[in-house]
Amino acid sequence: MPRPAQTPPSIEFDAESSQLRLRGDWTLDQALDVGRALGDAPADASGIDAREVTRLDSLGVLQLLRFARRRDLDFETVAFRDDHRALVCAIEDVADDRPKRKREYGVAAALARLGYAVHDNWKEFLALVAFFGETLVKLLRLFKEPTRFRPTATVHHMEQVGLDAVPLVALLCFLVGSVVAFLGSNILRDFGATIFVVELVSIAFLREFGVLLTAIILAGRTASAFTAQIGAMVSREEVDAIRTLGMDPIDLLVIPRMLALLVMLPLLTFVAMIFGLLGGLTVGAYGLDIPPQQYLARMQDTMELRHFIVGLVKAPVFALVIALVGCLEGLQVEGTAQSVGERTTSSVVQAISMVIILDAFFAIWFMEVGL
Predict the structure, then answer these.
(1) pLDDT tens digits, the chain, 371 residues: what are they?
(2) Does the model's pTM come out above 0.85?
């Protein structure tokens, strides 16, 4: 069957309307003529009329799209025939799916990446503040509508967050307490003040290390679990199903996890303090020749209740931050496995960073008020 006769592409400029009127075949067979016609087009054109184009394929659409971008013309205003509109829409949707450009190096590129990172982090912070406000409002709503509370889910998460983490928290804090005692004794031995290891370990764990180590462990262990669990539900459209059933994902997924962490993190902090002090006691008894009775008597004489309160006050704040970050990142998953992994990594980094930053602010504030 003979191929139909082809008409070379052509462009006419209508001076009255500043429109480029396209005619002929804008197809792959006419690629060279298409390029020459667009190259010779007047520079003062403000629009394109392609309704008189006889045949059009993907090459013609792409050439017109790139031409419009080079001339700063709105491609949405280009007039096409109705039977060409579906092809144009399909090509326009995939026109930007190109390989990413290689990473640029240099001072300007580094400053640009820094600016984008600061902007993204600021948006994440605003999203976290907004999410905290939404969660707080719906938490207070439980007093008015107590049937929304999920006690079974809360107890389940308390077991996962708290009881399952006790062996890890106890072991790590015991070892860190031992290390702090060893390092402190090496310095204090030169001054004949080895006995002050008691104060070093006790103050360090009661004020800082107990709550900080616990929060960091849970930020890595629990925040990532929250993000992965909720993110998997988002990717499987279970969260959309919850909304379709008329239920609130905040009530079902966020509040039980947040309440569980608010209850269990202070308890785990207390466990961390106890085992940190036991680590120091063990080193003092077997490595520094300080009898346990003397170690405990020294600790009872020198320790004050305010050190314990300072450490314990931080625990609910850290718990709130870890829970909110983990749940928010999970709800922001976009539905792919890659997004789940990226959000899980982001939740761990954000949670640990915010815990350390808040601990620094707490330390400065308590120092200024004399606690």
Answers:
(1) 455 567 788 888 777 777 888 888 878 777 787 788 777 777 777 778 888 888 888 878 888 888 888 877 777 777 888 887 787 777 776 655 555 566 667 778 788 888 888 888 888 888 888 988 988 998 898 888 888 888 898 999 888 888 888 999 999 999 999 998 888 888 887 777 778 888 888 888 888 889 999 999 999 889 899 998 898 888 888 888 888 888 888 888 899 999 999 999 999 999 999 999 999 898 888 878 788 888 888 888 888 888 888 889 999 999 999 999 999 988 888 877 788 888 888 889 989 999 999 999 998 898 888 77
(2) no
What CA–CA distance (Å, rounded) separates 154 from 149?
Answer: 9
Q: In a 3-state reduction of DSSP, which class is residue 67?
A: helix
In this structure, is the dihedral angle defined by the CA atoms of residues 120, 125, 128 and 129, taken in order, positive or negative? negative
Q: Where are the domains of the chain?
A: 10-94, 150-369
Tell me, what amino acid is at 334?
E
CATH code assigned to 10-94: 3.30.750.24
